Amino acid sequence: MATVNIRRDVDDKFYRYKMPVLQVKIEGRGNGIKTVIPNMEEIARALNRPPTYSTKFFGCELGAQTSFANDRYIVNGAHTGDRLRELLDVFIEKYVLCPSCKNPETELVITGKAGHEDIHRDCKACGRQNGIDMRHKLVTFILKNPPKKKDKGKKGGKKGMTAEVNVGGPLVFDKVESGSDNADEEGSPVVSPGANMGVPTSGTDIDAVLGKSDPILENPDAAEAVTKKLSKLEVNGNGNGHANGDADEDDDDAAGSPWGVLRAWLIDNTDASDADVVAKIKDIGVVGKHKVLLEVGQHLFTDEVVAQLPKRVNLLQALVTSEKHQKSLLGGLERLFAHSPSSDSLIASGAVSKVLMVLYQGDILDEELVSQWGTHVSKKYVDKETSKKVRKSADVFIKWLDEADDESDEE
Fold first, then answer.
1. Per DSSP, what are the bridge partners of residue 328?
2. Are residues 115 and 223 in the same domain?
3. Core vs surface per residue 337-348: b (16+ CB within 10 A) or e
């Protein structure tokens, strides 16, 4: 593999600090297009930084969602290798090089108490300690995911973010204990009731829990056509990819209000095309509002949500453009599970985990957000007991997500 100097401003071919040339691979099409960095782990190893840091830095700088699992480091959208290499140089300058001696022999060290942490670069070459810019968005990610020391004596298989394990054989889950020490907005962490609520436990095959279905439409041409229709309808609000905002969102739920009209239409038109749904949202005048996702999540789907959702991935990718949108979509789906005529059997069947898998694989839900949602009970959308049941049913997916992250970090 071709290598370059870590400091690209150094022309000396005998410069000792080198890294692989960053490679990119564009995958997908339309709203599902993404940029994969196949050799991010090799680059990260040369920089002595977790590969998630540089990937997340790209996302922060480009305003794009990122995901990392199974040796795949992904930035949503199509980005050129030259652009990402420029950003990698910035990352190296900000988080790797020692400002004093300009050597990359540094480690990130976090000091201070919770809420008052500080991060600095500890240089092994000159012994100096230099701080980093604590105002950058990446700092929050680093504090939540501090550098971990590798356990050289521990070896294990890798878990991918698909429904199958990449080392062969079915992926098996241990029993999930969902207790948490962190209180939510209501002050109540998720608890694990003793009663079996239908969530698969030890010895459960993931294929039986989450299924093998790919969330992307089976017909690529149909998916592309839907994407083109959605882009023509300017689903994000103003034609340049940005939503109109939610500051003036109308909370009036009366039958004649925009939300009452949208709700009634969705209930009567669950089979409507994606383009028709977007056209109705535009016609009502609520484009870009996060509450649109609350109504869509609750009323566009039925008890058959597990089968229906994969066909709506393109629509949801177009509608979900912010963290608020993601939270509202989860709230709507939570209400769907709570108010369904077959609520108990639907929750007990593991449908929540299956739905989360589809949304995660479709890059609709952010990993950090869905993990936090899964471990914090809230009565914002449903009563507290129902909220516990829904999250209990999601334990399988949340546990799998956390363990996949942990193993990726260890490797």
1. none
2. no
3. bbebeebeebbb
Domain with residue 22: its CATH number is: 3.30.30.170
Given this model, what pLDDT does residue 230 score?
53
The answer as to whether 405 is a domain residue is yes
Q: Which amino acid, one-letter code, is at 80?
A: T
Q: Is the dihedral of CA 11, 12, 17, 21 positive or negative?
A: positive
Answer whether 64's CB lies under 8 Å from 74's CB: no
**Is 371 part of a structural domain of the chain?**
yes
97 vs 104: CA distance, rounded Å: 4
Chain length of the chain: 411
> How far does Cα 306 stand from its chain's mean position?
19
Spatial contact of 66 and 56, defined as CB atoms under 8 Å apart:
yes
Looking at the structure, tell me whether residues 132 and 265 fall in a common domain.
no
Q: By the 8 A CB rule, do 117 and 143 touch?
A: yes
- Of 265, 252, 339, nearest to 298 by C-alpha is 339
Query: Which range marks the domain in which residue 265 is found?
Result: 172-410
Write the single-letter amino acid at 90: V
Residue keyed to tokens 């969602």: 65
**Mean pLDDT of successive 10-residue stretches along the chain, which has 411 residues:** 87 90 91 92 94 95 89 92 95 94 93 86 91 91 82 38 30 35 40 36 40 41 49 45 42 69 89 91 88 90 88 89 88 87 81 88 83 82 85 84 58 49
CATH for 301: 1.25.40.180
Q: Which of 125, 144, 163 is the last residue of a domain?
A: 144
Q: How many domains does the chain have?
A: 2
Predicted local confidence at residue 149, as pLDDT: 58
Question: Is 276 within the bounds of a domain?
Answer: yes
Domain stop point among 144, 162, 191:
144
In this structure, the answer to whether residues 48 and 185 fall within a common structural domain is: no
Residue 181: predicted pLDDT: 38
Domain membership flag for residue 162: no
How many C-beta atoms surround the C-beta of residue 185 within 10 A?
10
Q: Residue 24: its pLDDT value, please?
A: 94
Q: How far apart are alpha carbons 80 and 86 in whole angstroms?
A: 10
Same domain for 197 and 60: no
**Cβ–Cβ under 8 Å, residues 161 and 69:** yes
Which CA distances in Å does 292 have to 169, 229, 275, 277, 287? 41, 19, 15, 11, 8
Residue 395, Cβ density class (10 Å: 0-12 exposed, 13-18 middle, ≥19 buried): buried
